[in-house]
Here is the input.
Amino acid sequence: MRILVLGGDGYLGWPTAMYLSAHGHEVGVLDSAVRRQYDHELGSESLVPIESLRTRVQAWQEVSGEQIAVFHGDLTDADFAYDAIRAFAPESIVHFAEQRAAPYSMIDRKHAVYTQTNNIVGTLNVMYAIGELDRDIHLVKLGTMGEYGTPNIDIEEGWLEVTHNGRSDRVLYPKRPGSFYHLSKVHDSHNLEFGCRIWGLRVTDLNQGIVYGQQTEQTALDPRLATRLDYDAVFGTVLNRFAIQAVLGLPLSVYGAGTQTRAVLDIRDTVECIRLACENPAEQGEFRVFNQATESFSLLEMAKVVANSFDGPVEIQHIDNPRVEIEDHHYRFTHTALESLGLEPHLLSETLFRSMFPIIAQHRDRVDLDLLEPTVRWRESLRSRTS
Ligand code: NAD
Ligand code: USQ
Here is the structure.
């Protein structure tokens, strides 16, 4: 298939592009490089050094013999989005290209507005481009498990059968997320479902959990193919941060009591889920939702898994939760659709932490300890922090 990966320079987009290429697909990547600009803004950097997109693509060609086409530009620019999609003529588009950090979206008004504008406008442009250029293109859109929040009922895959006053309907599952970033994904989901209804688009919305890990079969082939690994309190995600803290001999930073439960998956499962979604497209007019996560754990359980995998003493520290989150809540989610397509999940208990620890140790001198401390507080986001 011809597959265009939007956000193909990112943490997940780059390994996915190589994985799809390694599985015989013709791949293009599109990216604005804005993720590299957030690093400049925040004074942060990937723990593992990463190459420019140009070098990555050249290295992939040397290593695999396969070419990856590159489109450099911003999806909020509709002309660029249309031109790239017209030029590559994909059968599937995998859409990773959004601002993805909840804390970044909660810094202040400016960052909340930026996040929602970037994400929602970019996705609307992609929807319109598909609608006007070729409605057969299957859009595989990255949503997030956090769209659901932590409801006191079981989480279904996108849709819910409801009976009210004796009548029944199948409705989009009610959402109650915990940040303006997560809300941008909810708005995307609603826009996309509408596009399927009115124009007959075919969309798979992947409500992905928190990804952990840094290596896939392809990134391990050459250091120039490495993907990023973030540890700062804005972009670093919880299991990756815990792994880095363990290697540095720092206490694992559990926010609050750590009884919040979250859905997670291994980066090697992310790339496989995307392949499965592309190779098994949604029907014309279908808004298909998969919960792309394999397991769920409380934060305290996650900290214990990392501590137990590490060969050395690890302390777990509870720190004031900078976010507004419910603790001790119900959490059970359905995740059968991807398994039914053939996904064989890697489990946290047999994780890649053991392979991650040496990589982290190799680059430990690059860590700026100040960046590990959470500075974005949800309740203080009304106070202006930047001009
Ligand atoms: P990332 O920030 O590393 O990658 C996103 C890429 O998209 C970046 O390279 C960025 O430059 C690009 N981008 C952003 N806005 C763009 C625009 N307007 N036009 C063109 N390019 C743009 O993020 P990631 O961790 O790889 O996540 C990828 C996707 O998966 C995101 O949509 C995220 O919400 C979703 N997701 C990530 C996780 C996770 O744990 N990392 C979990 C669930 C869902
Ligand atoms: N947390 C800690 N300690 C830390 C960092 C985080 O206890 O040092 C806690 C947070 O309070 C939160 C949980 O860990 O309860 C997850 O935080 P996170 O930063 O790892 O993940 P989150 O903000 O939810 O966002 C990440 C990605 C986002 C994706 C989402 C999937 O950045 O792109 O959408 O995971 S999900 O959480 O399922 O919505």
